[in-house]
């Protein structure tokens, strides 16, 4: 099916699309068209600073330097709280729970030296070296310190649900003072990896407060992470009620995590007590949930009403990052495990735009979408499988790396237009090897890189855009036309992204009349990769007809 484009695309002034008239019977969504311009855009960041990736810890230094360069910002899994708690006390794993051997001394809080052991984490992994290599490679890290500590709330049978909210033994999850063990752990982590140094080095960290096993060297102020996320998807009861944080529980948890509940726990508790400059990511909800985030912050205000009396902020907006998770589901929610769809067929763009606008109207904190993406498998295999067409190439495992790259690119650009300060794709590398049946596991093929290290087309496309659009900022966006257009600029340079917001192999043509002198016009066809993306050099002295396909294309105009 072909779509007719009536009108022209202008390159000057605040109006990019003029005379944009479509046969509305071809619309793929009932949502209203979304037009974003300089006066309505919430997006102030350059594209390269907006781009992030979810990653895991990696031993191979070469892979860190190479594969991780697809984005500057990385949200790190595999740095869960429980891996620092001494795996020698774990006798057996049963699903999401583990059996803890309480006969082995494990220094339960407040003497929890095993509870922070950074150079001897899970499997003897050296987190100091890992984070240092990432920083040396120009990468910024946000460790996700999800899950419980292995000595908190240990039942008589010693079977720990590691996802349960880490309130203290016998405590009340709605009381911020009953998270002292976890607040202590967060202080230790922040002291080591934040900016504040030991007193002897000009900082304010007292070495007497550091809890280290005998094989750990006393260190502080390594400056290896720029933010910490103390939890993940805590708004859902994944296995039992012990994992779900109501707004009251989340507010209590956050107040403890932020600064040991306004410093009332005493020295050595809370993130900002260790480093007042550290960023704290709101433990990401499972969906775009402004009501939940706002309710938590209102509860936080109630708990911290007298914060000024303690020399603290009621809501430390300069340190807080507001967050959401969102995948392109038809009904705008992953709670019912609906099948994924093209992002233009969902409410994800409009809901994200509203989410950002609502939160920005009340708080000055940055807003991140910390998980989104598509599996390489088709939609009927995975809930977040990539929608495919009859021309999308498939391999023997029902995997289409072509379709994944196409839809991840559209998703990224749409979320950039929606206004998030950063968006993190899930994930960088496939968590599970693609084998005869392994690909049928949820999230098994969501990465840009295979488990064996091979890079898929999406890696090359995302990496190319991150580099090519360095410094470019959003000027204009038009979605759901079915033609989608984005205009970005960097000084006198202009970039356009075009794509059809459909999934039926539609194409159209757009006329590009040049209203000013450009020395070069380069078109990059992102679906074609052969060692590099080579530009089609177009004649800037002529009116140019651009073929628009469902795979986005990039046009760069330089004076």
List keywords for this structure.
eight-stranded parallel sheet; globular; GH; Immunoglobulin-like; single chain; 559 residues; 20% helix; 10 helices; alpha/beta; seven-stranded antiparallel sheet
Give an account of the 3D structure.
This protein has 559 residues and is an alpha/beta fold. It has a domain at 6-40 and 477-558: Immunoglobulin-like (Sandwich), CATH 2.60.40. The protein is 20% helix and 20% strand. It is built from 10 helices and 24 strands. The chain has helices spanning 47-50, 61-66, 127-136, 180-193, 247-259, 271-274, 290-303, 348-362, 401-418, 457-468, and strands at residues 6-9, 17-21, 34-36, 51-56, 73-77, 90-94, 97-100, 140-143, 159-161, 227-228, 279-281, 320-325, 367-372, 375-378, 385-386, 422-425, 473-479, 483-490, 493-500, 508-512, 520-525, 536-538, 544-548, 553-558. It has an 8-stranded parallel sheet. A 7-stranded antiparallel sheet has the order 3-17-18-19-24-21-22, with helices on one face. It has a 3-stranded antiparallel sheet with strand order 6-7-9, with no helix packed on it. Strand 11, helix 7 and strand 12 (320-325) form a beta-alpha-beta unit. Helix 4 (180-193) packs across helix 5, helix 8 (348-362) packs parallel to helix 9 and helix 9 (401-418) packs parallel to helix 10 (457-468). The longest helix is centred in the C-terminal third of the chain and has 18 residues, at 401-418. The chain is globular and about 75 Å long. Mean pLDDT is 88; it is low at 1-30.
């Amino acid at each position: 099916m072909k779509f007719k484009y009536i009108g022209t695309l202008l390159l000057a002034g605040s109006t990019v699309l003029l005379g944009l008239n479509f046969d509305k019977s071809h619309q793929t969504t009932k949502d209203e068209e979304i037009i974003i311009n300089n006066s309505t855009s919430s997006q102030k960041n350059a594209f390269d600073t907006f781009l992030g990736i979810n990653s895991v810890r990696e031993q191979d230094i070469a892979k860190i330097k190479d594969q991780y360069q697809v984005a500057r910002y990385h949200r790190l899994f595999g740095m869960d709280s429980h891996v620092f708690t001494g795996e020698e006390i774990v006798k057996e794993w049963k699903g999401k729970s583990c059996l803890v051997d309480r006969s082995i001394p494990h220094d339960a809080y407040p003497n929890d030296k095993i509870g922070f052991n950074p150079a001897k984490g899970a499997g003897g992994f050296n987190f100091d070296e890992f984070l240092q290599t990432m920083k040396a490679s120009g990468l910024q890290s946000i460790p996700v310190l999800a899950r419980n500590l292995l000595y908190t709330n240990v039942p008589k049978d010693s079977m720990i649900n590691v996802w349960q909210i880490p309130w203290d033994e016998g405590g009340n999850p709605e009381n911020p003072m009953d998270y002292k063990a976890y607040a202590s752990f967060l202080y230790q982590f922040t002291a080591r990896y934040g900016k504040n140094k030991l007193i002897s080095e000009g900082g304010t960290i007292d070495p007497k407060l550091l809890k280290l096993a005998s094989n750990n060297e006393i260190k502080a102020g390594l400056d290896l992470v720029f933010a910490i996320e103390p939890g993940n998807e805590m708004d859902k009861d994944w296995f039992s009620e012990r994992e779900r944080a109501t707004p009251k529980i989340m507010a209590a948890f956050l107040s403890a995590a932020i600064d040991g509940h306004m410093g009332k726990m005493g020295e050595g508790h809370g993130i900002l007590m260790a480093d007042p400059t550290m960023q704290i990511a709101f433990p990401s909800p499972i969906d775009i949930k402004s009501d939940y985030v706002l309710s938590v912050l209102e509860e936080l205000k109630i708990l911290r009403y007298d914060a000024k009396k303690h020399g603290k902020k009621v809501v430390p907006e300069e340190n807080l990052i507001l967050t959401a998770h969102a995948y392109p589901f038809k009904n705008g929610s992953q709670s019912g495990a609906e099948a994924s769809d093209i992002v233009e067929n969902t409410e994800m763009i409009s809901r994200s735009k509203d989410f950002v606008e609502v939160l920005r109207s009340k708080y000055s904190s940055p807003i991140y979408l910390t998980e989104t993406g598509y599996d390489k498998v088709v939609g009927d295999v995975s809930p977040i499988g990539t929608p495919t067409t009859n021309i999308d190439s498939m391999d023997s495992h029902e995997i289409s790396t072509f379709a994944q790259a196409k839809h991840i690119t559209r998703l990224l650009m749409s979320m950039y237009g929606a206004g998030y300060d950063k968006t993190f794709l899930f994930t960088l590398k496939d968590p599970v090897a693609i084998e005869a049946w392994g690909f049928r596991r949820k999230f098994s093929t969501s990465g840009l890189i295979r488990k064996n290290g091979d890079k898929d087309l999406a890696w090359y496309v995302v990496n190319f855009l991150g580099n090519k659009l360095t410094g470019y900022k959003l000027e204009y966006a038009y979605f759901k036309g079915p033609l989608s257009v984005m205009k970005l600029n960097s000084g006198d340079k202009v970039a356009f992204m075009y794509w059809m917001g459909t999934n039926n192999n539609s194409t159209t043509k757009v006329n590009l009349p040049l209203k000013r002198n450009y020395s070069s016009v380069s078109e990059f066809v992102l679906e074609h990769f052969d060692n590099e993306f080579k530009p089609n050099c177009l004649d800037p002295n002529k009116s140019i007809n651009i073929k628009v396909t469902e795979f986005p294309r990039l046009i760069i105009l330089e004076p």
